[in-house]
Amino acid sequence: xxxxxxxxxxxxxxxxxxxxxxxxxxxxxxxxxxxxxxxxxxxxxxxxxxxxxxxxxxxxxxxxxxxxxxxxxxxxxxxxxxxxxxxxxxxxxxxxxxxxxxxxxxxxxxxxxxxxxxxxxxxxxxxxxxxxxxxxxxxxxxxxxxxxxxxxxxxxxxxxxxxxxxxxxxxxxxxxxxxxxxxxxxxxxxxxxxxxxxxxxxxxxxxxxxxxxxxxxxxxxxxxxxxxxxxxxxxxxxxxxxxxxxxxxxxxxxxxxxxxxxxxxxxxxxxxxxxxxxxxxxxxxxxxxxxxxxxxxxxxxxxxxxxxxxxxxxxxxxxxxxxxxxxxxxxxxxxxxxxxxxxxxxxxxxxxxxxxxxxxxxxxxxxxxxxxxxxxxxxxxxxxxxxxxxxxxxxxxxxxxxxxxxxxxxxxxxxxxxxxxxxx
Length: 424
Description:
Layout: H1 3-11, H2 13-30, H3 38-42, H4 45-50, H5 54-70, H6 84-95, H7 99-109, H8 115-125, H9 128-136, H10 147-153, H11 160-170, H12 175-192, H13 198-205, H14 217-224, H15 227-235, H16 243-251, H17 255-263, H18 272-281, H19 284-293, H20 301-308, H21 312-321, H22 330-336, H23 344-352, H24 362-374, H25 378-390, H26 392-395, H27 402-412, H28 414-421
């Protein structure tokens, strides 16, 4: 792009804000990924690690280490030994394959306290390189028993080479423990949908049958959403006729598996339970398919589930396709029930579509505002407060008494107080 055009566009505040809004919408609404402001990333080590800001992460913990030393805190290994945020940041580094970050902090600060949890993170994320590196350092701190959890959780990493290495080199257990480890590993392979490792595990475990693997191994496979894994179990003589399997598949957003089980003639494949699981999943394609193949009618519990699960896409679908299920004052009901915390995106959608009645009772207004200040986690309280204050002319028949709310908000949180002050 021509620099002059670029400068002209971004010097226009309205255009600049619109562009950022559209980019954020693509990132959050369509790609379903989290969005952060830089000031959030800069002060959170796990985000610095996840996005590979190596130098900034080093600088952050140099400050922390120097501060701890200046406070004369006694440490066994490192001035950062008891900083839990570093342990979490390193686990993120392992999951995101940030090997430079992992190796620097382990070599520089000797953080052996985190060794076990980091190895589990490596196993569950399939990071074989990190697992071998961690296995190679400070061997005196490890024992064979510590490898039980790493082997059991390793199917979720879906790394065949890593699992072969673990089974061949780290299965140094007595026969009873070894059998138990194999049973739990097979169960997790089913739940991970890691069909490529199942025959190998069965062969190595010398189990003549999968008894003891799980109370319902077909359910483990269904949770994975892997049709290949379900078919592998069917080939071993297991059945998938129970309606609970297709309900579970819908709950976990596995449309293709729902269609597969439906094609297999599963009893009750599109019943009320499956429909409600689809609504709770928030996956519109799944909801639409279940709707087109349903054997029962929708009821008002559907919108209740969509709101409780904070599934805006489900709310939109119901409003478009089954508007008779949604009360005309549903927004009022949600605001009146202060303990039922709903995402602001859903509240805004209901407001934009006029699914509310203007609140003209002072007592109701007071209770709604107090609930917004006091109920739920801080982020939700702040968002709800902004929603109510920003839309007060639409929601209430007269302006909110912010001067009465201000001291209450300040007593709860400086930031909540600042939000109210911005509307004075």
